[in-house]
C-alpha cells in the first residue's frame, strides 16, 4: 500500500526497501520500513546472488532494473547472528574471537563480521552488540541450518550468544 500511495502522489519509490514485521496473535504487524539492505536479512539472500550486485544497484539507480540480469541460486540459506553477551542492553566488548577463518572455510558457509575490530595484539575482538553473522547454504533448509550451526560451534568466543532456534519453525511447518 505504501508503494502504491507514493506512486499515486507522483513520488514513486526506487531502491531497496524491507519491512520489519512481527508475528502476533492478530497476524503480521508492521514495525518499521528500512530503505537499505538489512543485515542479517540481506546476508542470507546475497550469499545466493549469482549475478553482479554492483550492476544491479547501478541499474536501480538508472531506472533500468527491468532490463538487468539478476539471478539467485535456488538453494536454501540461513543466517545465525552471534551477539555479545548482554545484547541488546549493554554488550560485553573486547573479548577475543577465534576460529572465524576456520568456520568461514567450511563448505557453503560465509561469516560476516559487523561488530569486530583488532586489539593491540592484532586479535579480532568484539566491538559491538551484533558481532558476527554466520550464513550457510544447502540443498535444503535443514542442510543449510546444520551447516550454519556447525560453523557457529567452530567459533571460539566465550562472550558470544546466539539463538538456537533459527529456521526451526519453518522446518517444523514442513512436517
Which helices and strands, and how do they pair?
Blueprint: H1 2-8, E1 18-24, E2 27-34, H2 41-46, H3 53-62, E3 76-84, H4 100-104, E4 109-113, E5 116-118, E6 124-126, E7 130-138, H5 141-154, E8 160-161, H6 168-173
Antiparallel strand pairs: 1-2, 3-7, 3-8, 4-7, 5-6
Structural commentary:
With 175 residues, this protein is of the alpha+beta class. The protein has two domains: 2-38 and 49-67, D-amino Acid Aminotransferase, Chain A, domain 1 (2-Layer Sandwich); 76-173, Phosphoribosylglycinamide synthetase, C-terminal domain (Glycinamide Ribonucleotide Synthetase, Chain A, domain 4, Alpha-Beta Complex), CATH 3.90.600.10. Helix content is 27%, strand content 26%. The chain contains six helices and eight strands; from the N terminus they run αββααβαββββαβα. The chain has helices at 2-8, 41-46, 53-62, 100-104, 141-154, 168-173, and strands at 18-24, 27-34, 76-84, 109-113, 116-118, 124-126, 130-138, 160-161. A four-stranded antiparallel beta sheet has the order 4-7-3-8. Strands 1-2 form a two-stranded antiparallel sheet. The longest helix is centred in the C-terminal third of the chain and has 14 residues, at 141-154.
What's the gist of this structure?
The chain has 175 residues and is α+β, with helices and mostly antiparallel strands.
